[in-house]
Input
Amino acid sequence: MTFLLLNANLHTLDPQRPHATALAVRDGKILAVGTDDEIRAHTSTHPHTETIDLGGKTILPGLIDSHLHFAWYALGLQAVEAETPTLEACLARVAAKAKATLAGSWITGYGWNQNVWAAFPSAADLDRAAPAHPVFLRAKSGHAGWANSLALKMAGITAETRPPPGGDIQKDSQGEPTGILLEDAMDLVERLIPDKTPAEIAEAMRPAMENAWRVGLTGIHDFDGRKCFGALQMLKERGQLGLRVVKQIRVAYLDYAVGLGLRSGFGDDWLRVGNVKVFLDGALGPQTASMIEPYDGQPDNYGIVVTDKEALYEYATKAAAHGLAMTVHAIGDKANHDLLDVYETIRGEESGRGDSGGRPLRHRCEHVQLLHAQDYHRLGQLKATASMQPIHATSDMLMSDRYWGKRGAGAYAWRTQLNAGAVLAFGSDAPVESFNPFWGIHAAVTRRRADGSPGPEGWYPEQRLTVDEAVRGYTLGAAYAGYMEGRVGSLSPGKLADLVVIDRDIYTCAPMEIKDTVVLGTMIEGEWKYRAF
Ligand SMILES: [Zn+2]
Output
């Protein structure tokens, strides 16, 4: 089956022909790219051709998010979004969820704030909305949980129950539990909530995939655990996996992966094995990222080390020797420095073995949030991929100014990395941030938030990218990081027909308008997964 897209504005990212107006698709692959006349002539021998006139609309290659947590995101869609201006609004959401949920099944959620509601809510409040379901909603602070009477009963929490160490059970003037559990007392209820099975996660992923298509995503690199992998395989078995997924492996399973003989890149166009994931340090927000010099204003705080350099080396040398590449979370400049030292050693070992006929391992640095000036050039030199989340820069810029001060010149420094020869692979870390790739492209190009702050130039404006460079991070760069650059990432003859139709030309519109881009169509392997034009 062949069809033609004509009268379009194609940004192909193919150096052979970066711009074109027409594209022919046959059997899920791109047959040809060119002018309308060229494409018509090229396909005149295929009489059953459908022709779609795009009316000048802009088309990009399908967009790929290089770092997200798809099971976490998908299950989050099922939870009650409890961050509401009033208690009643939250209860209305709980009641709606109860209506759509089998009686007796747990209802969970997150986000309420007693400061916004002027008082702590109670179990009796929740009972009005959902008497027949156990309900437990975590506060936005993460330090308190709110249970209904059924959940309290199932947990055996009564007036007599003593709080566990490190926790408290809030009680009213009669000494009865109110439904509010603090800190470690939350575990009394949370341990009763059954973990989701892979089949349940797979079900939750179906609406999640639709949301992804709606913002133009055709592929993702997932960082969740083995149940997520099971869920993805179930969807694939049923022919329902509608995103191309590269699945990272947690380091806890390194020995199993080695034992099984898995290599990075194994799989097919829908589901592939990626790299081995390790955490080196914490994060900027809680000031736990591992630092060479202490945090500004905290002379004793160098952050925390989750995995030290020696342990990382042990993982990496073992993985690399067996054809598994690494993907390592590193936020602070010390974590990144140690990571690059380990990669330098590993690259030496790889070249020493003349590496075994396979392709070079595509080691990655996740986040590359802060580099010391002496390390700026090293990702490029070591051919390590910089997996960065542009939206983090604008979300975190005030914290970076506050805790890292002048060191922020090396923070979220994608221009520096690109100039030094590193491949950029962009993503969102969803659900930490929205996975809308146009928000990411906007952040990469403007270094400004949606509200325009911190001003017209943006935060460290010398780090701004061109639109084309930013789009590359979501296409060719991400495809490379996922061992798929020969299959996707550009609109080139022979590649899979993954593309997105958008309502404006982001290459020419005002940069602040990129974030408002509306996706009109998302095609994967020649099939419209989403079409609204
Ligand atoms: Zn993550």
